[in-house]
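SUBJECT: A protein chain and its fold
Encoding: whole-number codes for local backbone shapes
RECORD BEGINS BELOW THIS LINE
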Amino acid sequence: MHDQALIEDGCYHLTPEYAETWWGRYIWIYQGKGRLRLTRESLRFDGRKLRFDIPLSAIAGIEAGQFSRVAKAFGLAFIRLRYQQDGNENTVLLVPAKSPFAPTWKTNRVIVKWLETLGRIEEISSRVKPPLNLPISSPFFRR
């Protein structure tokens, strides 16, 4: 029986090492895509190039970061996920989004929603750093 999803979205991923390459900084920031799903038991990613199902107890830390403004001029955010697997700490950068071409402020809203949901889970709430100053409104049209 599968646990009910607390939140689920399409998601892009990359490694911190890839993010530091010339290609990852200036040409295409993502390495692949899939579905990100959070339940009360685990955080799961299903993609062609990457798959994981991490028990919440194995999550070492979750925080927001931002891509270089050279790559995304309006400050696209990502979720840095650190987790334990087979005795090693791994890190993956996640960008839950509808499309790689969605406006950055719309994608950042999805990321904030994920961080808020993760922060409400008692088991990992102390390991989730709240997002600070992510651009979530259009720089062109202010409400």
The first helix runs from residue 16 to 19. The first strand starts at residue 7 and ends at 14. The radius of gyration is 15 Å.
